[in-house]
Fold this protein.
Amino acid sequence: MKRINWIGMCLIIMLIPMLQACMDETESGLNGSYLAISTVRLKDAAEPTSFYLVLDNGKTVNPVEGSAVENYKAEEGQRTFTYMRYLEKNNSESDSYDYNAEVFHLQNILTKDIIPLTQATADSIGADPINMTYGWVSEGYLTLEFQFYSTNNEAKRHMINMVYDVDKELVDAEGYINLEFRHNAFEDESIILGEGLASFKLDNIAEELENAKGIKIEVNTIYNGSKQYILNLENHTHENTRKTTEKIGLTIF
């Protein structure tokens, strides 16, 4: 289970005069602080404290010594909100990365695999209403912004998953991969509308993605019932310009 700490993220946002997730290639951007969505990559699998970050536009970031992330438990492939300040390159190690940065804070984003939906798992995966408000594919992940109703009680838990139905063709006749975005509210009451963000690894459908036109996502929406969203891969890559945070103060896994 993973708890979305929206209070911590709100404190970060208060410190940023303007959320700007991607850095201008010119030197004029070096003095600002930025909030970016990134992916953790370990420099050495045996050293979880040694890592770098890959932004959704493919640029790499090297956290410099002195960044406030010494106690951060890095996991390969973990998605994060990254609050940082870009620095000038000044050592040979910098040549391996696009940017050096002083990293002030890393906030994990819910990161999961895409899993099979079977008759045996259908009940536990659930089909409660949820909205998909934005989505993109980048750096081997499908990332979604979403909304659902809850009591906003941290003692309550909700579960979300991206699934493929094993009883249906994964790739349809049009060349699209068919997925479903599922939500289990575990009978929590629908009182407060909250927002969140999650990333789903594309490893389990990587072979199909090589020749697919895009992804179709079936969603049981809050207001309009079942709805299908289409992400054409050439049109929905992400350039780190989306300004978002996690705003649901309860346990989501």
Remarks:
- The chain has two domains: 2-108, 111-252.
- The first helix runs from residue 6 to 14.
- The first strand starts at residue 2 and ends at 3.
- Confidence is low (pLDDT under 50) at residues 1-29, 236-251.
